[in-house]
Amino acid sequence: MADLGYRTFDADNHYYEAPDCFSRHIESRYREQAISARRSADGEWQVTVGDRPYNFMHVKFDKTNAPGSLYEMLKAKRDNPELGWGDSYTAENMLAAYQQPDARLELLDRQGVDWAILLPTFGVSVEEYMVDDVDQTYANLRAFNRWLEDDWGFAHRDRLFAPPLLSLLHREQAIAELDRVLAAGARIVHLRPCPWGGEGRSIADPYYDPFWARLNEARIPVAFHISDLRYGDLAVRMGDDPVANVREMSAFQWAFHHGDRPIMETFGALLYGNMHARFPNLNFLSIENGSDWVHYLLTLLDKKKGMARYGPWPAGRPAGRISEIFKQCCFVSPYPEDDVEALVERIGATGVLFGSDHPHPEGLADPNSFVELIANRSEHEQQQIMRDNALALFELN
Asked: 293-307 vs 322-329: helix axis angle to the nearest 10?
């Protein structure tokens, strides 16, 4: 375990959900539209979204693979093409710390981590299955957030900050659930990376201002964790399966559907929407979307702002360079395989958040080993990234 001389704030930690995380608290009138998990005859879990099979990822309720094991899994697949993604799952890998908050705190203590943003594993990937039914979407998100309160809490011991899942598919329902979770103690909220609401509008359209104003007043950061945004029409036109399991997507889908494009479009909408000028207390966090896109996006946004000088600016034309506005309200937690020092050079140490993705296989087995990725930065910058930036976002000492 890396010994830094101080305890850290991990901005990308995960839990594994319970099988009834969406169905336990679903309102009776939406029971048939719940996201439900049942064991099949072979003992494996089958998840449905209402009457639709869910297949975006292999859901892990009682077994998983080891933290940081992705490289070995890909190497094994190279050597044995018949090997499936789930073949590495074992019950022994599903530790109590991944499903219970106090056990998680004990694990964080051993890892030298004091605080963590704790995110779902499969819960962030279900909204795309329900976008054609607003009421089903909100019923399931409300149910999930109540389960989250039960099993984890929104701010357990002021150390585990678990964001409730929200959506802008419908303004009034979004506001109602936001008001409820803020009253229940939420300290951060989650929206999937998606630049549009459900009503033919940008998420930065002034129509949604009552939603954003509440977050601005409460000084609550907004996390955008990598999610499922299918771009289904494009997949069909490219000859790809628009509902492929994430581990079975084409390279084109990995490159353009799952990662860079959704978060770039989302931040582009927020920045061109003049959100920082209108809501100066809002901070936007990109979590587990990588960071290779940042340099390109900031160059692009600066250039196209000038090109669109005569275009529409419904919320007012932002003053100054978009790349500088980004540094004032946007934070990025990069992948461990990214050039993190190049990211620091582009946006400054104050805009970078340490995130381990623990306990996922694509993450770090030892969270604090992230510091090795910024070994050439000053100790002050390292501490900003590993702890202080996140502490400031949550207004913690």
From this structure: 130
Residue 320 neighbours by CB under 8 Å, 6+ apart = none
CATH number at residue 159: 3.20.20.140
Q: What is the rounded distance in angstroms from the CA atom of residue 309 to the CA atom of residue 195?
A: 21
- Residue 207 within a domain: yes
Indicate the burial class of 18 (C-beta count within 10 angstroms; 0-12, 13-18, 19 or more): middle
Domain-embedded: residue 304: yes
CB 71 within 8 A of CB 59: no
Q: What's residue 1's pLDDT?
A: 67
Does 209 reside within a domain? yes
Residue showing tokens 């999610």: 227
How many domains would you assign to the chain? Answer: 1
Whether residue 49 lies inside any domain: the answer is no
Residue in 218, 65, 61 with CA at minimum distance from that of residue 151 = 61
| Residues of the chain with confidence (pLDDT) below 50 | none
- Tens of pLDDT, residue by residue over 213-224, are 999 999 999 999
Range of the structural domain that residue 259 is part of: 8-17+99-393
**H or E element: which one contains 381?**
helix 379-383
